[in-house]
Give the backbone structure.
Amino acid sequence: MKINSRTLLTVLVIFAVLAALLLVLILAEKLLNIWHFLQTAPVWVVGLYLLALLAVSAMGLWLWLSLVRVKPTAEKIEAIDESSLSEKVRQEAARGVDVAEAQAELEELHRRRGQGHFQIALYGTVSSGKSSFIQALFPDQKVDVDVRAGTTRDIHRYRHNNLEIIDLPGFDDLDPEQEKTALEETLRAHVVVFLTDSDLTRTETQALEKLKRTGKPLVMALNKADRYNPDEQSQLFDTLQKRTGNSVPVAIIATGGTQSIVYRDASGHESRQLRKKPANIKPLLEAIEQVVANNPEALNRFRDAAILMLAAEKLDRARQQYNRQEAQRIIRSATRNAVLGAMAAITPGSDLVIQGTLATRMVRQICDLYGVSPKQMEIDRLIKLAGGKLKTSASVVLAVAGNALKSFPGLGTAAGGAMHAVAYGILFNALGNAVAETVAELGTLDEAVARQKFEQNLFGNSEKLARDLAKVALKAVNS
């Protein structure tokens, strides 16, 4: 009898069915025995037996939930230490990173500590009443106020004793860079007052969310309350509290200002006059005092921490920009050397064996730039992958190289050596950018991610790159 795969499968199915039937019979027999035992056993034995079953079931359920449940991990927020940050600034400056912005934040922190002023930043849309609030708070100081529109386009500061009010421009009338500057200034203050004169618009809601994410102590002020009756004020108060998630104090105020009054005499002649409106900013001052009274020293610590965080972010952006620029310099240099190396070889091969040293050095330099220490075997696999792409995609890569060489008048189809040299350059550029992008995003040389990025970069190269490499190759031919 010839045994084939179908026969073997049939035998296995028969044995599986027989085993399942046997298991069912055994379980049925055991269950019947247990049932008869429970019927004749004392009540307390039955109770203990059921309790044992429940305990085992509960333990099994608990164990299953413990294994499959995803335990939330508390986000670890690393405190920024001023001395450590200052040392990082010095180290990055020694590398050549432009640390001017980060250094300026540290100097600003020292300046504000020395002054000892308590700073309140006013944040709101145009015409929300920021300047009017300052005029009501400091009636003896000259403040630009316009009843038709907001006039604050820059950051202005008003001081009285140890109190400093920072008047920020209306965030709905700023370009992205100005908005960023205004938001940064809120981080440097102790308390932020968000002014509005109605229910929040979409723009105001977005701005409020940005402020809340900074974690700064925040007070909301509903200004121009004299425009609403008591019921409307109450409704707006409840709405604003809901908008803030009941996490921000809301004060109903009137910052005064002026209003245009039209007078008509007995002859019907009309005249227009400006009249000052009464101000009532006491509820806002009380709300600020309540925030301050909770822990004045904590506000100083929060202010310092916010400025240090701002300095750290600016240092990180500067470091990233420097690393990107240096990575591109390394890639350009290695790509040029790869083209020249290929031209120097008499018969360039279809892999990167000839260029292995150059490729390894390029990957190492990029990884060192980002503080990554990959294993040599990971680098070797990436370089082997790059060489393999010239074999599997030779028609595409060489076609790009050939087209680039053809763009030079009088050359026609370039010699094979020059074409391979340009192809090597394309490979080096794609490999270098893949490594740089991977270590910049992940902080490690992930081989799978780098491979994917390499393929994307390889087939996404522009004709301009190929033409630039062709110039290098032709220059080597003519020299």
